[in-house]
Amino acid sequence: MKKLKLTGFDIGMIIAFVVVTALGGGAWYYLSGQLQTAQQQVTDAKTQYDKLSVVKQGTDAIIVSSPSSQTLQANIDLLNSEVKPVIQDKLLAKGNQLQSKTNENPVDWKQDLDKDVTALTAEAKVRGVALQPSFYFGFSYYLGHSPSDEATSTLNKQLLGISEVSKILIEAGIKSISSIRRTYDEDPHSSGGNGGNNGGPGGNNNNNVTFTAATEPDRLSGISFSAPGDAYHDYPFQVEFDAKAEDLRTVMDNLLKSPYIFIVRTMTVDNSEPQSPKVSSLQAIAGAPTPSVADSSPGEVASTASTKGPQFLFGNSVLHIKARIDLIEWTDMSLVSTPDASGNSTNAALSPRGN
């Protein structure tokens, strides 16, 4: 048997092979262990996910525990129970007739307009509220024009809002109403400005007349708009009137009490007496005193009374007020309970169960 002769090179190669084999085996053993650990973690996570996914709300699976799901539903039910009465009692009050106002014959609409204007004018006269000559409460354009059938729905709602605001002003006993302006939403040619269109409201002007603030004093810049999701529709107005401070308080209070939703967006107030009385003028304002009736005891102050009587230094002036007031028509019915076939109230809003 021949002896195997190994050179130094052969021995070196054998040693290198043994070392590489040992290191590779160790690395493989280490990496395979890490892979098995990772695979086990994935399996455990999948098991936990499947366990939580069996919780159902309607047809949808949610990754919450059953107690958490019950708490969530209880909070939703509580929110619905709090929100629904507010919408039904405040935003859709029984006296609110906005949703009943739809299109009507233009002749009938103009007759309704004339009736409202006549009634408001008569009430203003009885209560001593001054109006501008031939005042038409924001609808003077229709003294000589008729709206289209499609425009009467919006005009009906604007007329309802303006009539309500006018009644509140008149019944508060203010001094005067100088103007009421509204957006010309019935005008298909309008860009919302005070001019630049040749159609006029309803687009039925054939005289190629450019309307401006001078020819359309009732026009308010802008247009009405609908909120995102069609939650409500906004009809803007602007009213100018003169009133005492106490009368203004009455107006604001009655706007809040109205079955309609009125929001005062902006208000400017100019005082008829912008300057406060000077100290040097107080004696003249009070008037000459009557002779003293006090005794002559030391330390006593003579009691006097003004020949003019009590004088108001503050709070008795007339205020000129310009207010932007928006009428809100609530149109989102998703939170309003409606009776089902059995007569029970149902509500699908805010409920993940869909019932």
Summarize the structure in words.
Among the domains are: 67-96; 97-273 and 315-336, Ribosomal protein S6/Translation elongation factor EF1B (Alpha-Beta Plaits). It has six helices and ten strands, in the order αββααβαβββαβαβββ. It has helices at 8-53, 66-91, 106-126, 152-171, 245-257, 282-286, and strands spanning 56-57, 60-61, 130-131, 176-182, 225-226, 232-244, 261-271, 318-330, 338-339, 345-346. The strands form three sheets. Strands 3, 4, 5, 6, 7 and 8 form a six-stranded mixed β-sheet that branches. Mean pLDDT is 74; it is low at 191-199, 202-211 and 345-355.
Short recap of the structure:
The chain has 355 residues and is of the alpha+beta class.
Features:
single chain, 355 residues, alpha+beta, Alpha-Beta Plaits, six-stranded mixed β-sheet, two-stranded antiparallel ribbon, 6 helices, 10 strands, 37% helix, disordered C terminus
Query: Could you give me the name of the CATH homologous superfamily of the domain at 97-273 and 315-336?
Result: Ribosomal protein S6/Translation elongation factor EF1B
What is the CATH class designation of the domain at 97-273 and 315-336? Alpha Beta
Overall structural class, as computed from helix and strand content, comes to: alpha+beta
What percentage of residues falls in helices of 4 or more residues? 25-40%
- Mind telling me which CATH architecture of the domain at 97-273 and 315-336 this is? 2-Layer Sandwich
Mean residue pLDDT: 74
H and E string: HEEHHEHEEEHEHEEE
Instruction: State the distance separating the first and last CA atoms.
Output: 95 Å
Tally the beta strands.
10
CATH topology value of the domain at 97-273 and 315-336? Alpha-Beta Plaits
Task: Note the main sheet.
Answer: 6 strands, mixed
Beta-strand percentage range: 15-25%
